Amino acid sequence: MGRGRRRRSQGRQDTLLQGVLLVDKPAGMTSHDVCRIVRSRLRLGKVGHGGTLDPFATGLLPLMLNGATRLMPLIQTVEKEYLAVVRLGSRTDTMDPTGEVTDERPTDGVTDDAIRTAAAGFLGKQTQQVPRYAAARVDGKHLYEYAREGEEVELPTKEVDIQELEVQGIDRGEHLDIRMRVACSAGTYIRALADDLGELLGCGAHLAELRRTRTGGHSIVGALELQSIIDQADAWRVERGEAAERGEETRFEPPEHARRWAEYLGAALVPVHRVLGDIPRIELSPELVARVEQGQPLRKGALAPHAAELEAAAFDRGDRLVLAHPDGLRAVALLRAAVSRDSMPRRGPDDIVLEVERMLR
């Protein structure tokens, strides 16, 4: 019985909709929560994210849908950009607004010039200590687990690169807040930066607000609010319910479902070849696609009917190409060129031209 239910459930999933969906994450939920909601509402097979945002943080969360989850190692390592508010005068145990205040100091003597000079000192490559409340592991255990249990552990360090740090404003109201824009390498802890800045200024600090505005080449400008996706899914569910009450056919058809969602999501759903920097996307016969799906390389002789398309692709040895599926909805695989396009005339029919680097399923 359990197996039968699992097969039926999988048959009602859409495994065809593919790409990286740019979502504007709201505050108050984890990145995993966003993945779970999108996977459920869109009835998808797999959803992963391209870099954790803490629950209090908002902004750009790239979600990899279905086969695009195979790109996770390539997406999570790109640089990020944030808007941050650093609140001077108080430290917290988590270095952010969710923690308990552990230290409060006056900020009366902290000048604007001192703030700007101190902030500029954090530019460039540096060693950063991982916060106590972090998901990083030591001896197989999350750091936040040690912290919650009151157990001391040596905190690891990591190399980060803060490429840009712009102080956009200094607000002296109820609190002394620094508004900053930070562009940095993947894995940089902005809350650790806030804490370090406060210690350098001698008054302590914590990260009060954080909003991610860019991940690699993708901007928050192109993202959809999570609530708009939820609302559309709910509207279509109501529509299906009304159709069923009228006795109309409402059977779940994955291709139709995928096309409908792709149209709604529009530019917020970035296809695989654009995610990877507008690399060439090629279309081949179903027979050759089937070979690739079995992990087989493609040789010059088999590719002869597609000579014109390969000529237009303009690739060098080692370049990546994306193979499109005949259904037009997804990519089948990430390919790697074994030879350059210009060398093709000199190659024999048995020479390998394209190799499978990564299946996208």
Number of helices: 12
Shape: globular
Uncertain runs with pLDDT below 50, 5 residues or more?
Answer: 1-10
Quaternary structure of the protein:
single chain
CATH fold name of the largest domain, please? Answer: Pseudouridine synthase
Question: What class do helices, strands and sheet pairing give?
Answer: alpha+beta
Count of domain modules: 3
* Name of the level-1 CATH class of the largest domain: Alpha Beta
Outline the biggest β-sheet.
Answer: 11 strands, mixed
Proportion in β-strands:
25-35%
Report the C-alpha radius of gyration, rounded.
25 Å
The overall strand count is 20
Q: Residue-averaged pLDDT, rounded?
A: 93
- For this structure, what is the CATH homologous superfamily of the largest domain? Pseudouridine synthase
Helix content: 25-40%
Distance between the termini: 27 Å
CATH architecture tag of the largest domain: 2-Layer Sandwich
Protein model, in words:
The chain is an alpha+beta fold and 361 residues long. It folds into three domains: 2-77 and 219-265, no CATH class; 80-211, Pseudouridine synthase (2-Layer Sandwich), CATH 3.30.2350; 279-359, Archaeosine Trna-guanine Transglycosylase, Chain: A, domain 4, CATH 2.30.130.10. It has twelve helices and 20 strands. The chain has helices at 2-11, 31-41, 72-75, 112-120, 143-148, 190-201, 226-245, 254-265, 272-275, 286-293, 300-303, 307-313; strands at 19-25, 47-49, 58-65, 80-88, 90-92, 101-104, 124-129, 137-138, 141-142, 157-172, 176-184, 205-215, 218-219, 224-225, 269-270, 281-283, 298-299, 320-324, 331-337, 352-359. Strands 1, 2, 3, 4, 7, 10, 11, 12, 13, 14 and 15 form an eleven-stranded mixed β-sheet that branches. It has a five-stranded mixed β-sheet with strand order 16-18-19-20-17. A two-stranded antiparallel ribbon has the order 5-6. A hairpin with a 2-residue loop joins β8 and β9. The longest helix has 20 residues, at 226-245. The protein starts with a helix and ends with a strand. Mean pLDDT is 93; it is low at 1-10.
